[in-house]
Amino acid sequence: MKPSRFLPVILAGLALSWAGSASAYKPGVLRELADAIETAAPVSVPAAGSIEVGFSPKGGAEALVLRVIDSAKTDIKALSYSFTSPRVVAALLRAAKRGVAVSLVADYKNNVTDDRSGKGRAALSALAEAGCDVRVISAYPIHHDKVLIVDRQTVELGSFNYSDAAARVNSENVLVNWNNPALAKAYLAHFDRNWRQSEPFRARY
Q1: To which H or E segment does residue 50 belong?
Q2: Which stretch is the leader sequence (predicted)?
């Protein structure tokens, strides 16, 4: 038997063991494990467009993220863990003001329940009050994605959180694949899955 054929058995075993101690997990996790049994294969997409990278601190990472947002003409779909950067928020507000449809899924725990500074709630509230579609997700122990999908063409990804710490003091990286619709389609599928598992954020300060 090939090693890859053991994957469904392993995942099923994990699901059963976790079900016995479900206090640390939400029911959606078991549902996602069932999905993983059927869709565990990675997605291959053709190389296309152009690649640009940035780093932080002082390596152009945040500037590249802002340029991606400012390039948007029709829509931006964002996934985030920490979401506290005033410059990223300002760029998304500018996009919304010029008619770009902005949708965001952010980690619930990091930006709401554990947000002692209030910066995460304030950032999400600012976008929600401006008419952006803002949702929070608690289906996973950590929603650790940091992704922008712009105009269904361009994808920004990497370790870079949308936060001051990521821009100023942390060692981070950003990669942008400009004009690669196939890659954008793959990330849109991931975005849509998380969107379905999230709930609307209620604006508050």
Answers
A1: strand 50-56
A2: 1-24
